[in-house]
Specification:
Strand content: 15-25%
Radius of gyration: 28 Å
Strand order of the largest sheet: 2-1-3-8-7-6
Helix content: 40-55%
Number of helices: 15
Distance between the termini: 49 Å
Number of strands: 17
Structural class: alpha/beta
Largest sheet: 6 strands, mixed
């Protein structure tokens, strides 16, 4: 079954609202073995929506329309679809009861235009709205099938998961399912990753391999089409092994949400290790990133933000004369910052960040020059010189990610 998602709303075209519904629906439909071939956004214009429906009919079996089910005049999706398939709109009794109960509870008067929200296509299957008022609908046509869903994600997601998905599985059963696995990489760019995997990507069939670049990392989504999960995992395992044989050095974890900081914090917890930091150009961003993870206090007692020379001296005890000689943008400064933080905090590891975030040079060093030090309780201190690009914010983020990766590798190499 070929599916298409049409998002309706001028606010989407104006960039006032981000179309997260399409991403959500594509992922859930793929899990069901339904492949989405097109995403389209159209404004609140009946003529253009009708033109788009005609196009969708020519290329898709299942058409999902999101938005335009509300009470106002620009909520026209149901009306246009009803005219398109040649059936009238009818009131849904359960929806009407819920609507009346809603206004009675609020002790307010319902305006007549609210009745538009509980209309549905005649002969369609109503989709109740647990978190809102607008009723959805599954309409099975002679050739094409349509699903009407509300625009707000807080309404669309539960309606799809609780109402639409079970109906689709019942009405259009599929033997094949799509199973995906996401591999995450740091320290290699998308172009290099794709080059190293060029032969695999060129000859891919099942599973498929899709690279995606994120800020300071790259992900690969490998997707297998099979009839059962066991067969899918066997295919994914084989493809993953081939991928890691080529670029495994840069692999750090799985999943869309399993970020590098989460991986590092879990490693620290597992090994019962602790981390502190002394930050200059990042101004606490590394420590703030750690703080986004629940339970990080088990492994992170605190750290130091030493933006100026004076605070490097007063907070960390660095020698002011030596600082004048070496400069703050130097390997020596990074080394001494990391070792001082380690000593003062009494942790197993300490990271230091010093350099030039930009936009101007500092101590004759160009922007993007960053020294990251890693001191260890039971090992030597390592300092890496880095040259990051782009703007100030990106340099700082790149520094944090590099520091996390240095720590991750140190913990893994320790074992």
């Amino acid at each position: 079954m070929k599916a298409e998602i049409i998002a309706v709303g001028t606010e989407l075209l104006l960039g006032q609202v981000v179309n997260t519904n399409a991403t959500f629906l594509s992922e859930k439909l793929a899990d069901m073995g339904i492949e989405v071939y097109f995403h389209t956004v159209v404004g609140d214009n009946p003529k253009r929506l009708e033109e788009l429906l005609q196009l969708a009919d020519s290329r898709s079996d299942l058409i999902l329309l999101c938005g335009g089910l509300g009470p106002t005049d620009d909520d026209l999706t149901k009306n246009v679809l009803a005219d398109h398939v040649g059936v009238p709109l009818v009131q849904n009794e359960a929806g009407l009861a819920a609507l009346n109960a809603f206004f009675a509870q609020r002790q307010s008067t319902m305006t007549p235009n609210n009745l538009r929200q509980i209309e549905t296509l005649q002969d369609g299957i109503p989709l109740p709205n647990r978190t809102g008022l607008a009723i959805g609908c599954l309409y099975k046509g002679t050739k094409n099938n349509y699903i009407l869903l509300p625009g707000p994600p807080s309404e669309l997601k539960p309606m799809f998961l609780e109402q639409a998905r079970p109906l689709l599985e019942k009405e259009f059963p599929t033997t094949e399912k799509l199973t995906s696995r996401v591999l995450r990489f740091f320290g290699i760019g998308e172009s290099k990753l794709v080059t190293d995997l060029a032969e695999m990507i060129k000859h891919q069939s099942n599973p498929t391999i899709a690279p995606y670049a994120k800020p300071n990392e790259v992900t690969l989504r490998i997707t297998a089409k099979t009839e059962d999960e066991r067969s899918a995992n066997a295919l994914l395992d084989q493809t993953e092994a081939e991928i890691l044989a080529k670029v495994g050095e840069f692999f750090y974890g799985y999943g869309d949400e399993n970020s590098l900081v989460e991986v590092v914090v879990e490693l620290l917890k597992k090994e019962k290790l602790t981390i502190t930091a002394a930050e200059s150009l990042t101004a606490g961003e590394f420590q703030a990133t750690l703080g986004t993870i629940s339970g990080v206090s088990e492994v992170f007692p605190g750290g130091f933000v030493t933006y100026s020379k004076a605070t490097k001296v007063s907070f960390l005890g660095l020698d002011p004369e030596r600082l004048e000689q070496t400069g703050v943008v130097s390997e020596e400064c990074a080394k001494e910052m990391a070792e001082a933080a380690l000593r003062l905090a009494g942790t197993d590891y300490a990271l230091s960040f010093t350099g030039v975030a930009g936009p101007d040079e500092l101590e004759g060093q160009p922007k993007g020059t960053v020294y990251i030090g890693l001191a260890q309780k039971n090992g030597p201190t390592v300092v890496k010189e880095n040259h990051f690009t782009r703007d100030r914010s990106y340099v700082r983020h790149s520094s944090v990610m590099k520091g996390l990766d240095m720590l991750r590798r140190a913990i893994l190499n320790k074992n």
